[in-house]
# Entry
Amino acid sequence: SVQVVDVGNGRTYSATVVGTDVTDDVAVLQLQGASNLSIVTTGDSSNVAVGDSIAAIGNAGGVGGTPSIAAGHVTALGQSITALDDVNGSSENLTGLIQTDAAIQPGDSGGPLVNARGLVIGMDTAASSGMRFQSQGATAGFAIPISRALSIATQIEGGNASGNVHVGPTAFLGVDIQTPNGTSTPGVEIRSVLHGFPAASVGLGTGDVITALDGVAVSTPSELTHQMQRFHPGQTVPLSWTDTSGQ
# Structure
């Protein structure tokens, strides 16, 4: 379940996930029973230049309440990073980002990056709790240009799924992944299985190695995550794995 707090009116809304783009780190949520909400004013991200003054607004540390503000400057454009997920070992390669020296922290992800006029020029992608950046300094913050984020959101709202964009509920196996794979079997090793979900119902267990989903071989957590994006809850798909006895 997803809940959204509007810091302007103090209300909490239930929300559903309309769709996601894992490759670009964008999701669209639809709030239930919400109306007359305040909206941001967007700028033109193509006019952003190195040296521009900016402020990153978000939920630093996930503490809630009044949004935090981190001031800084644009330090580079068109940057690429790899964001690593400590929970399932998957990674995202994000490109075309605005780099700043603002102290963006975990929890700020999804918040607006605004220019000196208060116009939103980007969406912070500092990563949610459990994510970290690979080979980047602690003072580097990153944001998706707002024009690209809104373009992806429009595609999701239009129901136009693609190789990267998933529309509707996301399928869930119910496994926690061990990284790195500590076995000699190529594939994705399972650290634990959640009771009551599909993986447990077909007999997967700790130490088993998933080798293919829907006939497509998977050798890394990222590949498994990417394949899962093709499906929705309720679909039946072939799953191949090797158990701890080698069968």
Q: What stands out?
A: The longest helix spans residues 146-157. Residues 55 and 71 are 4 Å apart (CA to CA).
